[in-house]
Design brief:
With about 675 residues, the protein is α/β, with parallel strands linked by helices. It folds into three domains: about 220 residues, L-fuculose-1-phosphate Aldolase (3-Layer(aba) Sandwich), CATH 3.40.225.10; about 180 residues, L-fuculose-1-phosphate Aldolase; about 240 residues, NAD(P)-binding Rossmann-like Domain (Rossmann fold). About 45% of the residues lie in helices and about 15% in strands. The chain has 25 helices and 20 strands. The strands form four sheets. It has a seven-stranded mixed sheet, with helices on both faces. Helix 6 packs across helix 15 and helix 21 packs parallel to helix 22. The chain is globular and about 95 Å long. The termini are far apart.
Length: about 675
């Protein structure tokens, strides 16, 4: 493992931080923490830990010994000084004299000794850092070290590899007992440079950040060198099909199988994160490795994200066998959930009962021959599960190359999975899900105007969002403004093949689609008796046939999932109240309004709702400055009066139209409905 420590960069960061009033030692700790957090073979998604001991004045100006410790769940890769909140050190060190300290007592003590009431909760491993005397302490879940320690004789292997450079701590769950064991191991030999926490991770320390970091790199390198001497045989999965269906075909079916019917047309859905790169495919084709990771996760911290073992589905089928695969996958899911329930009952009883069973849905699904899917309530959670599953696979493969992969026991993993302090990292109880959480929304023409406003409105409601636009750059810009999980794609919606490819890309990214807002359009003008045929046909291609292509692909995925869906169209006031010299635009829009009704009629029994929004005079890429001037002149109005020419005398914005789409998506018993958003135009009103 290569050291990334740069003395010049460290000095620059320290100088910059001290100029801002930040302690130099804290700045050094931030630098070391980021270096470790940026390497996924050391730390993943909020795992790992770091701390620094220093002094700071209290409100009276008296110096106070403090421990800056990583906040619970904070990401080491992007941590800032606020992510290492200060706690009073002396009261924590005094706890070393206790024989026992319950979790609630520990949480109370940590809370009472925070110097900032609004700082993140200190890590559950705070006492371990406090009990060690060195100024800087670093803790990772290094894959290579876990591969050595996750063995039946892990302690002996670690002693052979690291010699007297480390102390070895038996496995135990984080908290006061582990903190005492770490302190006792260190005190038995204060010359050690680090501590191997069996089946958990590696701790290094030093009186400066550079020393603690370099020791981490050196010890992990020794582990990597030992593993490089190993060799492992691959056991191929039987029954793999050379011409199997692609992931975008399987994903919506799997997503539908995982969904839970809540009744009355409502479903609890899950997001999928596909991994089908070389590493994921190698895992999925290796029966021995699949069996190994079924024994448990690489480090117990991962269990709250992935559960203890993966769901193993039938091998990816040929297209002719897709229905049979679906039924076999349904049976595999049911068996997984039965096994999870049994796991809960057995371990809960063994621990004295009192726990409430978590949902039994798998968080990782392996499809032999294809790869794996991370599964989560959000796209981010699904991605985290996939990352951790691949990390466990890498650890297991390395462990099997020198012996037998033997992670923490089922009972130990149960303890951590049902530990309230770990579940608190997920934050679900503190932050209820938003109304459209767990749903995937696609909007066309999403690079500007109504489409962009609609994408943002759905994201605020909790939906995962895919933006399609003729301009890939515009779609990607809107996606970036929403967040890292939003998807922006270039797509010419007048090209049916491009539309199908875009929906397949969304299925690969999120697992499927639940809401589609078919919004893309453009306005052509002309007197209907003299307009050229090419203009009228171009308008119909975009303003009608493109809506049909989008709707057909939406229905394709809706039906594959079997959980219904919302199909929403941006029609127009022109569909019911044509404007003078605007026939080339209004005619296809009228057809689109009836297209919406046809989908409601033909697919209502599939649980698919179809509805439309009729908007008027919205500033957007459709209604540009030139067109506003033209339409104002046609009506003999000023531009201001034209834009506010409605019963309320108020200009309507793109956000108002977006809100109407959101309402339709949330209204589970509304279909074949048209909502007018125009400030009041009695001629365009429906019933």
């Amino acid at each position: 493992m290569k050291s990334l420590w740069s003395p010049a960069e460290a000095e620059r960061l320290v100088a910059q931080s001290t100029a801002q009033g930040i302690d130099a030692e804290l700045a050094g700790s931030v630098y070391a923490t980021r270096l470790l957090g940026g390497d996924p073979t050391l730390v993943l998604h909020g795992g790992g830990n770091s701390s620094v001991k220093t002094t700071r004045p209290d409100l009276l100006g008296e110096p106070v010994a403090v421990l800056h410790i990583k906040g619970s769940g904070r990401d080491m890769a992007v941590i800032d000084p606020e992510g290492l909140p200060p706690v009073r050190l002396d009261p924590l060190r005094a706890l070393r004299r206790l024989e026992r300290l319950s979790d609630p007592e520990m949480v109370d003590v940590l809370g009472l000794n925070r110097l900032k009431s609004d700082s993140p909760a200190p890590s559950v491993e705070t006492l371990m850092h406090a009990f060690l005397p060195q100024r800087h302490v670093l803790h990772t879940h290094a894959t290579a070290v876990l591969a050595l320690s996750n063995q039946p004789d892990g302690a002996a292997i670690c002693r052979e590899v690291f010699g007297a450079r480390v102390g070895i701590v038996p496995y135990m769950m984080s908290g006061f007992a582990l903190a005492r064991a770490v302190a006792e191991t260190y005190e038995a030999d204060p010359t050690v440079e680090g501590l191997v926490l069996l089946k958990h991770g590696l701790v290094t320390f030093g009186d400066d950040a550079a020393t603690a970091y370099q020791r981490m790199i050196e010890l992990v390198t020794l582990a990597e060198q030992r593993l490089a001497q190993g060799r492992r045989s691959v056991v191929p999965v039987a029954g793999l099909v050379a011409d199997s269906v692609p992931a975008e075909v399987l994903a919506p079916r799997l997503r539908g199988l995982l969904a839970r019917d809540k009744g009355d047309g409502a479903f609890e859905r899950w997001l999928l994160d596909l991994r089908d790169d070389e590493a994921a495919r190698a895992l999925s084709a290796d029966a021995g490795l699949i069996l190994a990771i079924g024994r448990g996760v690489a480090t117990p911290d991962h269990v709250i994200r992935t559960k203890s073992w993966p769901l193993v589905l039938p091998p990816a089928p040929a297209s002719a066998d897709l229905d049979a695969w679906t039924e076999a996958a349904r049976a595999a899911i049911k068996e997984f959930e039965t096994c999870y329930h049994d796991y809960f009952v057995v371990n809960n009883e063994a621990k004295g009962g009192g726990r409430i069973e978590l949902d039994p849905v798998a968080r990782v699904a392996i499809v032999p021959g294809l790869g794996l899917f991370g599964i989560g309530a959000t796209a981010a959670a699904a991605a985290i599960a996939a990352d951790m599953a691949l990390a466990t696979a890498a650890c297991a493969a390395a462990a099997e190359s020198i012996g037998t992969y033997a992670p923490a026991t089922e009972a130990d993993l149960f303890d951590l999975e049902y530990w309230s302090l770990e579940q608190a990292k997920l934050g679900g109880r503190k932050h209820p899900e938003r109304p459209l959480a767990r749903q995937v929304m696609v909007v066309t023409g999403g690079g500007s105007g109504i489409g962009a406003a609609t994408a943002r409105a759905f994201a605020r409601q909790g939906a995962e969002v895919a933006i399609l636009d003729l301009s890939a750059e515009a779609a990607e810009a809107v996606a970036a403004s929403i967040g890292p999980r939003a998807l922006g794609l270039g797509c010419d919606v007048t090209n049916p093949d491009a539309v199908a490819a875009a929906f397949d890309a969304v299925a690969r990214r999120f697992g499927g689609v639940d809401i589609v807002v078919s919004n893309a359009g453009a306005a052509w003008q002309g007197t209907i008796g003299s307009v050229d045929d090419a203009t009228l046909r171009r308008s119909f291609e975009l303003n009608f046939f493109a809506h049909q292509a989008v709707a057909q692909n939406a229905v394709r995925l809706f039906k594959a999932q079997g959980t219904g869906g919302s199909l929403l169209f941006n029609a127009s006031k022109q569909s019911v109240n044509p404007g003078k010299n605007f026939g080339p635009y209004g005619l296809p829009k009228a057809a689109t309004l009836f297209l919406m009704k046809q989908y409601a009629l033909d697919h209502g029994r599939d649980g698919i709702r179809s509805a439309a929004v009729n908007a008027d005079r919205i500033r957007s890429g459709l209604l540009t400055g030139d067109m506003i001037a033209s339409r104002s002149a046609a009506r003999g109005l000023s531009e201001k009066d034209y834009m506010a020419g409605n019963l309320l005398g108020r200009e309507v914005g793109a956000e108002d139209v977006a809100d109407a789409f959101v309402w339709l998506a949330r209204s589970n018993k509304v279909t074949a409905c048209t909502i007018t958003v125009d400030g009041g135009n009695i001629e365009a009103s429906l019933r």
